[in-house]
């Protein structure tokens, strides 16, 4: 590297900076936060790339194996916030074996040693050991403002106590849905309560962690800034003191109610006290007898999570009609078409709606009316024009309903539909034209999931998906298409598609490989259920530099049935994974 | 424009219909082949089995018997075929297998075993969906996956609703639901059940 070359580079940098002085460029960059804009800026010239690199505060690494911590530090040495994701999304559906990988160790070691400005760390679907946490705490305790261990596993409560004791600046501790071993009860909450006074968010919702009302109340008393508290199961009658203390609390989720056979059957929840600032609520195991707990506060509610309750269709109607200000509603499909009609009439400000799949396997337990069809979908499309996120599990659906979504739900940027398999017949097949109308209308869509059954979306429909999904970056398709031609049609379009997940489709390995080559923006492909060749050799057609191809066969005890085999392919600057368990075979690079 | 769309719709329907028709056609052909073979092979078997004992049996009854006996007869015939195949069992010959990039040579391989091996290879071939466009991962093979969080909730919910006293160990616990006493890994859905 001679000085001449450096001088030349400077010259080039100045020319391409269009005469903007460095100070000005730095100031302008300070206002550019969108990572897509940042990416574009960094491609202008080396100088701009360097300015971006030094001023970038947050990076999300969507696939932890796509780069190395060393490389990330070389490019962005001043990062303040890092989000890392490892296991495929399918892990949330128990489709990825526990030994798949995704250890946080190499990352935590590097970022503890370097990344001198790191304040926020978010790990999602990763394995985090107690050692990792102690390394992190030793290096970053004085800095850490936010620690999110989001659907992670591998650590235990003593590590939480260590974090609580050491990280005095911690404002956010997020552990939702993590698998945490409980080695010393809820001491960690007491540590947090006695060592921290700046905590704003504590979330251990959907974990099996124990939490005593005494420690929680102590925490709320000492952390006066606490706005969000999402806990595991804890009886509501024991939390009255907590709510009287928590005068600034805005969000609460968790809790629990007595089982029907316990003595306090006749407990009255009508006059339960919630602080006036509370606008977001989710109560575990709430039943018909307890739902009155919501009524005095329902008009002020902006968010309501009823996914983990015992309510029937009728109860949902009663509650929702009292909540005209809801912006977020999360329920199971037990809400039924009737419940959704009430949502459509009442919740004019609704922005996010999630309708999860209820108990349809064991029969008898779930409310019979709890089914969703084109009726409910049409009602919501017409009644809730502000929707930006809409995920729904339906039992039936028609072209007209999908067209209604395309016509009325113009603000959607994320739409996900799953057609359940409990009804033998659905009203209309195929739904190609409905999907076309939906995609044509919802031009802001960035994410799109369509999980149906064979015959619902034909090859023609897949062609429409390719043609009318200009801005879609993430797509999940299940049981779609009739032949290889379908995926090939799709891959001719979808110019922005970065992440594609396919399940239960009949595409051959060769067609999948061709599609991967043809999709210009694709960086991540996950497939389960496809026409596997005996050796997997046809996948090699998509071999290209930096494109890691891994074959996953979860059953190690015997031969893996075809429908369990998975393909994961992604761009990586890190080369081949070095920590593959026996169930993961790297096809490329082979060495 | 509208007309074009309608046409397209019609075309789609036609495409859907034709696909169904193709499937039906294949199924019919398959049934005919199976049925045809069965009938042909059945005729002598039925004659041997029924005619000597029941001279007076009417045609219709006979046909009924044929229908009822069909699967059984087919089974015995298959056995017979297999028995026939096994007759030259004493023969031995060298055998070479190429599989998965490896070659294996046996000097004295019994013909009977070779036959079994061929059947095995043939059956796995037929099962491999590689060449068959109709072989699709079926809905029963690939049920819609349920979110882990909901799955755990529904299990707990079921326990609460069905069992009268699902958490016997919790009797002496004051306020904490017994499920948590397990201390079991978070993922074990049946934590409540494994308590006892």
Automatic annotation (TrEMBL), chain A:
It comes from the Eukaryota. SUPFAM superfamilies: RNI-like. Residues 19-58 form the COI1 F-box domain. Residues 77-123 form the Transport inhibitor response domain. Pfam families: F-box_5, Transp_inhibit. This is Coronatine-insensitive protein 1.
From TrEMBL, chain B:
It comes from the Eukaryota. Pfam families: Jas_motif (PF09425), tify (PF06200). One of its GO terms (cellular component) is nucleus. Residues 71-90, 122-141, 157-196 are annotated as: Disordered. Residues 88-123 form the Tify domain. Residues 77-90 have a biased composition (Basic and acidic residues). Keywords: Jasmonic acid signaling pathway, Nucleus, Ubl conjugation. One of its GO terms (biological process) is regulation of jasmonic acid mediated signaling pathway. It is found in: Nucleus. InterPro entries: CCT_CS, TIFY/JAZ, Tify_dom. PROSITE patterns: TIFY. Its main location: nucleus. Repressor of jasmonate responses. The jas domain is required for interaction with COI1. Belongs to the TIFY/JAZ family. This is Protein TIFY. It comes from Panicum hallii var. hallii.
């Amino acid at each position: 590297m001679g000085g001449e070359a450096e001088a030349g580079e400077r010259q080039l940098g100045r020319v391409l900076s269009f005469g903007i002085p460095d100070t000005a460029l730095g100031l302008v960059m300070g206002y550019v936060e969108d990572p897509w804009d940042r990416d574009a800026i960094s491609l202008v010239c080396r100088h701009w790339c360097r300015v971006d690199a030094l001023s970038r505060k947050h990076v999300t690494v969507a696939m932890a194996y796509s780069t190395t911590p060393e490389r990330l530090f070389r490019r962005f040495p001043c990062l303040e916030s890092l989000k890392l994701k490892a296991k495929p999304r399918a892990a949330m559906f128990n489709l990825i074996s526990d030994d798949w990988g995704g250890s946080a160790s190499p990352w935590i070691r590097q970022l503890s040693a370097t990344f001198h400005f790191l304040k926020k760390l978010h790990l999602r679907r990763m394995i985090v050991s107690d050692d990792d946490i102690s390394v992190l705490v030793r290096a970053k305790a004085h800095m850490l403002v936010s620690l999110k261990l989001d659907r992670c596993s591998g650590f235990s409560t003593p590590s939480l106590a260590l974090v609580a004791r050491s990280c005095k600046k911690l404002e956010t501790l997020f552990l939702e849905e993590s698998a945490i071993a409980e080695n010393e009860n809820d001491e960690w909450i007491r540590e947090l309560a006695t060592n921290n006074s700046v905590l704003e968010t504590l979330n251990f919702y959907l974990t099996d962690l124990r939490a005593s009302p005494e420690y929680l109340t102590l925490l709320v008393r000492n952390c006066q800034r606490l706005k969000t508290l999402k806990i595991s199961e804890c009886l509501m009658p024991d939390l009255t003191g907590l709510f009287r203390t928590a005068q600034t609390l805005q969000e609460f989720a968790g809790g629990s109610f007595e089982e029907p056979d316990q003595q306090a059957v006749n407990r009255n929840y009508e006059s339960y006290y919630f602080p006036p600032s509370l606008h977001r609520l989710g109560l575990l195991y709430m039943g018909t007898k307890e739902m009155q707990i919501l009524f005095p506060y329902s008009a002020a509610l902006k968010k309501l999570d009823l996914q983990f309750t015992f309510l029937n269709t009728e109860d949902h109607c009663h509650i929702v009609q009292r909540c005209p200000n809801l912006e977020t509603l999360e329920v199971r499909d037990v809400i039924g078409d009737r419940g959704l009609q009430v949502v459509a009439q009442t919740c004019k400000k609704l922005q996010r709606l999630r309708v999860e799949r209820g108990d349809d396997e064991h029969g008898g337990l779930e409310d019979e009316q709890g089914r969703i069809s084109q009726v409910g979908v049409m009602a919501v499309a017409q009644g809730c024009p502000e929707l930006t996120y809409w995920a729904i599990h339906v039992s039936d659906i028609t072209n007209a309903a999908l067209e209604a979504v395309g016509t009325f739900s113009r603000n959607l940027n994320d739409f996900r539909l799953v057609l359940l398999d409990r009804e033998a017949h659905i009203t209309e097949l195929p739904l190609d034209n409905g999907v076309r109308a939906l995609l044509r209308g919802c031009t802001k869509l960035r994410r799109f999931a369509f999980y149906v059954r064979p015959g619902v979306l034909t090859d023609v429909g897949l062609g429409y998906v390719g043609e009318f999904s200009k801005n879609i970056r993430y797509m999940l398709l299940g049981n779609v298409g009739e032949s290889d031609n379908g995926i090939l049609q799709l891959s001719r379009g979808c110019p922005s598609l970065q992440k594609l997940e396919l399940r239960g489709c009949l595409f051959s390995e060769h067609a999948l490989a061709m599609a991967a080559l043809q999709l210009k923006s694709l960086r991540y492909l996950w497939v389960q259920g496809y026409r596997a060749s005996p050796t997997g050799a046809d996948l090699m057609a998509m071999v290209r530099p930096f494109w890691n191809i891994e074959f996953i066969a979860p059953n190690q005890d015997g031969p893996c049935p075809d429908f369990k085999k998975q393909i994961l392919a992604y761009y990586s600057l890190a080369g081949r994974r070095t920590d593959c368990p026996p169930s993961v075979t790297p096809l490329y690079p082979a060495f | 424009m509208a007309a074009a769309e309608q046409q397209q719709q019609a075309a789609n329907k036609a495409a859907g219909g034709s696909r169904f028709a193709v499937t039906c056609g294949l199924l019919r052909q398959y049934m005919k082949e199976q049925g045809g073979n069965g009938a042909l092979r059945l005729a002598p078997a039925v004659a041997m089995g029924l005619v000597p004992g029941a001279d007076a049996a009417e045609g219709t009854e006979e046909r009924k018997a044929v229908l009822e006996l069909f699967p059984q007869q087919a089974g015995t015939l298959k056995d017979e075929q297999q028995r026939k195949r096994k007759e030259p069992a004493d023969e031995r010959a060298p055998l070479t297998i190429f599989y998965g990039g490896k070659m294996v040579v046996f000097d004295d391989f019994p013909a009977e075993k070779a036959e079994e091996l061929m059947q095995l290879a043939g059956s796995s071939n037929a099962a491999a969906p590689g060449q068959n466009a109709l072989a699709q991962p079926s809905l029963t093979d690939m049920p819609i996956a349920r979110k882990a969080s909901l799955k755990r909730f529904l299990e707990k919910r079921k326990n609460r609703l069905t069992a009268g006293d699902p958490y016997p160990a919790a009797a002496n616990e004051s306020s904490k639901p017994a499920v948590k006493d397990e201390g079991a890994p978070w993922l074990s859905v049946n934590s409540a059940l494994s308590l006892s």
